[in-house]
Structures are given as C-alpha cells and as structure tokens.
Amino acid sequence: MNKTPDSHKLANLQELDVLLPREIRGQSHTIPRIVSAVRRGELGLTKPSRPRGSFLLLGPTGVGKTETVVVATNHVFGEGKLFRFDMSEFQNQEALGLLLGARLGEIGYLGAVRERAAEGSLLFDEAEKAHPRVLDILLQLLDAARLTVATGQTLDFSGFYVWLTSNIGSAELMSLQHSNEATLERHVLTRAQQALRPEIFARVNEKLVFHRLSYEHQLEIAEKFLSREIEFLAARGHRIELDKTALPFLVRKGFHPKLGARPMRDAVEKLVGDAVAECLLTGRPACGILAHDELHDRLCVF
Ligand SMILES: Nc1ncnc2c1ncn2[C@@H]1O[C@H](COP(=O)(O)OP(=O)(O)OP(=O)(O)O)[C@@H](O)[C@H]1O
Ligand SMILES: [Mg+2]
Questions:
Q1: Rounded mean pLDDT of 44-51?
Q2: Whose CA is nearest to atom 17 of ligand 1?
Q3: Which of 26, 44, 149, 188 could form a disulfide with 111 if both were Cys (CB 3.0 to 4.6 A apart)?
C-alpha cells in the first residue's frame, strides 16, 4: 500500500480533477466521485483488505466509460498498469481456468497480472456477461482483494482498483429519450442491480451512470481531437486554422447514434489528413483555413 506518495504522485492526484474533464466531455457529474475515490485510495485512506477502490460504470456505448478508466489509470500510475478483461469472452466454465489457472502450476491471467504489477487497475468490461463462477471471482476481489490461483498461492490485489463496465439498461434509453437524466439514471441502476448479482452491486463503492452525449458535447469532442491533429500538423510545418463549418461536419462523420463518439478519433485523423494530402499532392502548401467543402462533402484547406 502506497501510504506516502512521492511529490510526483501527489501532483498527479491534485491535477486529476482538471485532467479528467479535459479528456472526458459531458460526464462532469461522474468526475468528482472518481477523483475522490482515487485520491482516498492512493493516500491510503481505504480499507487495506479491500481493493483501493471499486466502480461500476454504466451507460450507452461510446460515451467515455473505458476512456475514463484509461485516462485515470495512466495519469495516476503511468502506462502499462491497466489490465482489461472483456467478460463476453468469459461466459463459460473454462473461463475460470483462464483467469486463475486450470492445472496445478498455472497462475492464469490474473496471476500474470499480479506478477507484472503490484498496483493498477483491473477493468472488467461487459461485467454482466461473465459466467456465474467468474462473478464469484469478482465478488472475492471486491470483498477481500485476494484470489487463490491453481498453484495454491493466494494473491493480494489490494493495490488495485476494480472497474466494472456495462451497457445494461442503456438500449431502452432510446425509448425514454424525453425523460430527464435523473429518471434515466434510476432506470439504468435498477436494471444493473437486477442483472448483476445484488452482492456484487452492493460491494461496488461507486456506481456511476454515464449520459448520452449531447450535440454540444459531441462538438467539444470533435474539437478536442481536431486541435490535437492541428498541433500534430503544425509540428510538421502545416499551419491550419479552423473554419466554423469544420466541427459540425466532423460530428456528422464521427458520431454515430449506436456507437457514440467511438468513430471520432479516426474520422478526424482521416478527414483532416485527406484535406492536407490533397494540398500536398497538388503542390500547394498545406497552410490555410480548414473548412467543409460542400460540393464534395469533405474537408478542404482553402
Ligand atoms: N465523453 C467522451 N469524451 C471524450 N471522448 C469520448 C467520450 N466518449 C467517447 N469518446 C471517444 O470515443 C472512444 C470510445 O469511447 P469508450 O471506449 O470510452 O466507450 P464506452 O463508453 O466504454 O463504450 P462501450 O460501452 O461500448 O465499451 C474513446 O476512445 C474516445 O475517443
Ligand atoms: Mg468500454
């Protein structure tokens, strides 16, 4: 347990409430609770025989659940301390062997995690899809932060955060479009409680419902990726400024009602890259105003 964080870690913990909303847009209601739990976890203020913190992140696809875990974990621990498990791949009895080792002498994926790191984040996506025996493992993790692998060793996971994510109850959100966020949150939490085991639901410290992204937040996300792309190009000598027509076009191409903002990063990279390539291929410098070219329905540097 890291009870006396060094000054670098302290600075990272202090910055977390500024960094998270800069990276994750439209989910500001979740951020204070995540920041508070992580700060307490890192400062040794949580129970030593439990994970440093546990979270259930709910809500539709592509709205920032996994990205939140990635950003928070990398910021607090540095790269390489996030271990991800897609529970849709752990739906049968053999899954238990994969995680904890099937034969004497095997340590399983979770044993391998513990060999590589003493602290970090364990992320279990689509938690409700796990086989009941796998849910037992999650319960043990949440309860005592200890797991016994096939070698007979009992491993200590008290240096880890446990994050469960799920889209439970979010599909119906479309039909509840006109309800307010509080009603939607209640609906998703009730559905999650029914689908996950009540014991698991009760053991998780923070249950957070991520919201659908409003149009304003979709624009913000497009702008975030675009400004990074513009910076990247500037470092290569291409000076590009933004016209107000570019962002709505990028939202149209990079936001999908079913996938959320998932396509945005690639869409920005491709569409801006194509606009710059078009300049360079015709022997023009890629410097100017980036705007929507209505005729060809693409971005262009004018
Ligand atoms: N709120 C957001 N702020 C900034 N970027 C976002 C946000 N939501 C989604 N994105 C972008 O979309 C990508 C996919 O989002 P993410 O993986 O967090 O989705 P998710 O909520 O975990 O969805 P799923 O339930 O399908 O796993 C992110 O990597 C990021 O590029
Ligand atoms: Mg995810």
A1: 94
A2: 66
A3: 149
